[in-house]
Design goal:
The protein is mainly beta. The protein has a domain at 20-109: Thrombin, subunit H. Helices cover 3% and strands 37% of the residues. The chain has 1 helix and 7 strands; from the N terminus they run βββββββα. It has one helix spanning 120-123; strands at residues 20-21, 25-31, 37-48, 51-56, 65-70, 76-87, 91-97. A 6-stranded antiparallel beta barrel has the order 2-3-4-7-6-5. A hairpin with a 2-residue loop joins strand 3 and strand 4. The longest helix is centred in the C-terminal third of the chain and has 4 residues, at 120-123.
Length: 139
Amino acid sequence: MSTPNIGPGPHAQQRRSQRILLAVPILVSGVRTNGEAFSERTLTLVVNAHGALIQLREQVVCGHMLKIKNLATKEDMNCTVVGVSPAPPSALEVGVEFPKPCPRFWRVSFPPSDWSPRGPEAKRMPSFTAPAKPVVVKK
């Protein structure tokens, strides 16, 4: 039996925004399929301007609408579940997406859209030369 080639496709390196490994304390709330409300405290695993990857014990499915509250800033944001993967021991890794990009929600700075770690400016080390004489500021 042969193993199919499941390597990354041509768009694997094209991201809408930079991903950052960041544990932000959040409160996730939503409504179960039976109509009951739920809320769960958890942390983000990865954040970006378009959403996050979070770990949840609550069972959710793609398309599920959730509200995330950033416990550090008390701000909240609606989002949609866009991916669900099992994660040990009894939780899910859940990808959520905001209705529109909101990089300020996480309170981190994301690189500009045209930034590339492969670009020549990313590989340059800034040169530093100490001043020949100490600078004296007169009042």
